[in-house]
Amino acid sequence: MASHNQEHLSTEIVNRGIADSGPYAGSLSFSVTVRRGLPDFLNSVNLKYVKLGYAYLISHGFYFLTAPVVLVIFGAQIGKLTWDDFCLKCDLMNALFMMGLLSLILYIHLDLKPRSTYLVDFACYRPPDELKTSKEKFIELARKSGNFDDAAIEFQQRVLKNSGIGDETYLPTGIFRASHRRTLKDGREEAAMVMFGAVNELLAATKIKIKDIRILIVNCGILNTTPSLSAMLVNHFKLGHYVQSFNLGGMGCAAGVIAIDLARDLLNAYRGSYALVVSTEAVSYSWYRGKDIHMLLPNCFFRMGAAAMLLSNCHLDRWRSKYELKQLVRTHKGMDNRSFKSIHLKEDGEGKQGLSVSKDVVEVGSHALKDNITTLGPLVLPFSEQLHFFTTLLFHNSKPYIPNYKLAFEHVCILATSKQVLDEIQKNLELTEEYMEASRRTLERFGNTSSSSIWYELSYLEANRRVKRGDRIWQIAFGSGFKCNSVVWKALRNVGMPKHSPWFEN
Q1: Which of 267, 346, 387, 429 matches a 20 to 30 Å C-alpha distance to 201?
Q2: For the packed helices 453-463 and 433-446, what is the interaxial angle rounded to 10 degrees?
Q3: What secondary structure letter does DSSP report for 352?
Q4: Which of 52-61, 103-112, 495-504 has the highest mean pLDDT?
Q5: Three-class SS of residue 59?
Q6: Cα distance between residue 419 and residue 427, in whole Å
Q7: Active site positions, annotated
Q8: pLDDT tens profile 422-477
Q9: What SS3 class is residue 218?
Q10: What integer pLDDT is reported at residue 451 of this predicted model?
Q11: Pairwise CA distance, residues 117 & 170, whole Å
Q12: pLDDT tens-place string over residues 222-255
């Protein structure tokens, strides 16, 4: 019997040219690398997550199912009335009944109907040019720092070569100091630079008054200071004493979507408010200077960056907002030990701290993605695709029909993790290069900026005038735990080229 935990392997064959020496001198030399790849997670469907998606659909559609029924009853009662019923001689019982029904309809409309959440605008920070670090400069500085042995240097050089990262990403220079030690000072300075920069750009773009921001949510995976990062923002921008401040830590690259989810709930509690969400990661505080190859991987991919988002659920803000939040689905696989341990902060044998990435991370991530999109499907797919899926499931014994998710979205922003992961997701979801362009360009230009990556990708689409009125944008983020989160936005207007963008030269 085949095991469901069977490994999925992929091979890479490299022509190393003609051997100069040894028993095979004069012959062609090849090397074969075998690595774990993404399982074909669309080959099977877990019906538990299909049912979960429809449960969300039914709960969210309660208003739309109830309101028509009430309207029909109300209309029937009105139909029974004559002109005399509206005169002074009107029947008191009928009048009271009408008033009761009208009150019920107003209550359903104002209280039970979920308010739309709007993304007024967002901004992504671009660090100064003096912090640009090419792959060649990265290796040169790493070697001069004396923090790595030859094997560690060679490993990082090999990973960078195939990473999909370009030569203009940003890194804090302090991490390459000889005998580098992580310090709160370095972490705070980096966080202040990127967070304050992103928020300043957002405030300039929206013209929003600081006193109108009542909700503040900051997420950063590893750096968690006292006072918190959210307190740093409150202090710097002088937010009012009434601000509801939250600081999310240790939740990895998927925390940005979690912050949006939290902001949506808080806006429903504090109606008429604005929510400021800031997503970032401190590279200087996650930098590893040891020999463990699983802990060296984050050095090669993580780069500086931050994004700030302004959200509202006030009806009057619809006209000035860029996007409306349509769906948000979170999947957490922490109950599984392999998923839980796939990405975690630890110390190596020499007591050097760093972020460890397990060899299982690609596989557990694929299963989280499979479950997430299975739940998301009923919420976003056209009825024809869902009908085809269920027809195949009921009347055929072969593997179920996999819906075409390209019919649900015009744009896809996948967390810019690595070239290998993007390649595998593209293959399994059968996405075209056009769908993958924003993710690939972001990885090349800015690297993996953690939870803010998906916002650099949306910024890329805006900078290239790709977003039109009615377009649906699917943002997918992964994080430690293991988590996979999806958020779907709908463009409320044609989004023109912004005045300021990290993709524009100063």
Answers
A1: 267
A2: 120
A3: -
A4: 495-504
A5: helix
A6: 12
A7: 253, 332, 411, 448
A8: 998 998 888 999 999 999 999 999 999 999 999 999 999 999 999 999 999 999 99
A9: strand
A10: 95
A11: 33
A12: 999 999 999 999 999 999 899 999 999 999 899 9
Q: What is the pTM of this model?
A: 0.82
φ, ψ (nearest 5 deg) of residue 220: -150, 130
**Which amino acid belongs to residue 218?**
V
d(CA 10, CA 357): 19
Q: From CA 157, how far away is CA 163, in angstroms rounded? A: 10
Count the Cβ atoms, other than its own, within 10 Å of residue 442: 29
Query: d(Cα 425, Cα 431) in Å, to the nearest integer?
Result: 8
Name every residue whose Cβ is closer than 8 Å to that of residue 136 and which is 6 or more positions away in sequence.
Answer: 167
Beta strands in 273-383 (DSSP E): 274-280, 306-312, 323-332, 343-347, 353-357
Distances (CA, A) of 491 to 114, 118, 455: 19, 10, 15
Place of tokens 């030569």: 167
Q: Tokens 């923002």, residue?
A: 233
What are 285-300's pLDDT values in tens digits? 889 988 888 899 999 9
pLDDT at 5 over 50: no
